[in-house]
């Protein structure tokens, strides 16, 4: 019988083996070398063989993959990984994600998976409540902030052209009124990429100067928008990828409203400041926007991939995304079809780990998660600032720290490379206002005061060793 295949011991054997490897990996995270040690050639030697004519034993394949992790994978979920704004997988989120793979649900439409549709419906409302955004907003669960920005700006493109009588979904952009798109000089590259995907083009972006922390200058925005006519989209930012600074969103919101412009906010990690009383003021006025993009695999600490697109004008959101076909069974009632809110048909049930984490942590747990990350960033900045020759370049308002060594580009880059090789922690470099800098991003739920101290000690140790060279 067909059911014998599922009643056999094969699933149990493979799942138990995978679970054993997973548990062993997680147990090593607090103390393992954070960076990868194997070269591409070494990994290819272990993994690359001619495509087999006959398959091998599944358990051996799992063992082979697991054997390469310690040397070939960067421990991005380590409590001392500070390279990018990457959260670790919160335990309940990881467990829920395992269920998602086991259930193997296509989350595109309600008819395929009523369970996932309802879970994502609830998670969407919880997020709007957590961020205190308009409850009638449309919400879509996407891969990350790139697709969240794309989705929101697709809704914006539809909305501003609809207002002047143009149906961009039916008639395209050829012959359409030109859309003015304004963004800060410090906007994230995902805004540029979304412009390419949407057919608007990166040359259409009109840049507004930013201040010393990367915040959009309101006076420059007023001057810019006064010179424009026609449909306009303003792209603001909550959480500069280098400094963590948030644009003055309340003032920008008022300017957008007075000009009849659509305001979009890229809040990849900064939107989560709304969840913490201590940081909430940094995103003050964000509720005035028309759309918001964020990541859940950053500060909510759910597994990759998980982004969220939210649009105040649900009809504009739906019109920009939805598709219909004779063979699809789409709801006409209150049920939620995810395909109405995201660019994908077939998609992973990525809203399930979001639901699980929101329910397990609650408002207080999420607020604590955000506040602790910010506290660890301040701790690292304060400890590093005591070291002679070290300069902190930014106001540490959220979870980002920019560090420069001996006020020298080459020295700063050498320290970064040395710390990566040391393996106590992992962090990356950036270029900030023409200067090389170390960038520390604290986003992991498991990062402790001790992790921060150990990491600073390693950074200082590498820097001191470089200074001692003849």
From TrEMBL:
Signal sequence residues: none
Gene Ontology terms for molecular function: transaminase activity
Pfam families (UniProt xref): Pyridoxal_deC
Source organism, top-level taxon: Bacteria
Cofactor: pyridoxal 5'-phosphate
Record bears the keyword Disulfide bond: no
Keywords, in A-Z order: Aminotransferase, Decarboxylase, Lyase, Pyridoxal phosphate, Transferase
Family statement drawn from the similarity comment of this UniProt entry: Belongs to the group II decarboxylase family.
Designated name of the protein: Aspartate aminotransferase family protein
Organism (species): Lysobacter arenosi
């Amino acid at each position: 019988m067909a059911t014998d295949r599922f009643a056999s011991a094969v699933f149990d054997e493979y799942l138990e083996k995978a679970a054993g490897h997973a548990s062993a990996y997680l147990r090593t995270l607090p103390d393992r070398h954070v960076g990868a040690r194997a070269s591409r050639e070494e990994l290819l030697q272990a993994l690359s063989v001619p495509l087999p004519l006959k398959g091998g034993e599944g358990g051996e394949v799992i063992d082979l993959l697991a054997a390469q992790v310690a040397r070939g994978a960067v421990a991005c979920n380590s409590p001392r990984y500070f390279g990018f704004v990457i959260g670790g997988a919160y335990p309940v989120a990881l467990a829920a994600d395992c269920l998602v793979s086991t259930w193997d649900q296509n989350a595109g439409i309600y008819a395929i998976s009523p369970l996932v549709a309802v879970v994502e419906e609830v998670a969407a409302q919880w997020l709007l409540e957590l961020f205190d955004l308009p409850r009638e907003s449309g919400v879509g669960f996407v891969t990350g902030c790139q697709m969240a920005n794309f989705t929101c700006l697709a809704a914006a493109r539809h909305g501003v052209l609809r207002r002047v009588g143009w149906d961009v979904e039916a008639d395209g952009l050829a012959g359409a009124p030109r859309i003015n798109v304004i963004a800060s000089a410090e906007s994230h590259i995902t805004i540029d990429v979304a412009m390419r995907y949407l057919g608007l083009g990166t040359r259409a972006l009109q840049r507004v100067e930013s201040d010393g922390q990367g915040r959009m200058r309101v006076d420059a925005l007023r001057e810019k928008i006064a010179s424009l006519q026609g449909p306009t989209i303003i792209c603001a930012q909550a959480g500069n990828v280098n400094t963590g600074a948030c644009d003055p969103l309340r003032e920008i919101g008022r300017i957008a409203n007075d000009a009849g412009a659509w305001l979009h906010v890229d809040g990849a990690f900064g939107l989560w400041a709304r969840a913490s009383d201590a940081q909430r003021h940094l995103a003050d006025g964000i509720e005035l926007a028309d759309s918001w993009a964020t990541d859940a695999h950053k500060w909510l600490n759910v597994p990759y991939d998980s982004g969220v697109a939210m649009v105040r004008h649900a009809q504009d959101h739906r019109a920009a995304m939805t598709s219909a076909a004779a063979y699809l069974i789409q709801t006409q009632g209150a049920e939620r079809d995810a395909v109405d809110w995201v660019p994908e048909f077939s998609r992973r049930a990525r809203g399930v780990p979001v639901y699980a984490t929101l329910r397990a942590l609650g408002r207080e747990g999420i607020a604590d998660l955000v506040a602790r990350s910010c506290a660890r960033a301040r701790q690292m900045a304060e400890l590093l600032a005591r070291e002679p020759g070290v300069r902190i370049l930014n106001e540490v308002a959220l979870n980002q720290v920019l560090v420069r060594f001996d006020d020298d580009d080459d020295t700063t880059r050498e320290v970064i490379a040395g710390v990566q090789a040391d393996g106590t922690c992992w962090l990356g470099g950036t270029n900030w206002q023409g200067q090389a800098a170390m960038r520390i991003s604290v986003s992991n739920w498991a990062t402790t005061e001790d992790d921060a101290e150990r990491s600073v000690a390693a950074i200082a140790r590498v820097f001191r060793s470089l200074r001692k060279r003849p």
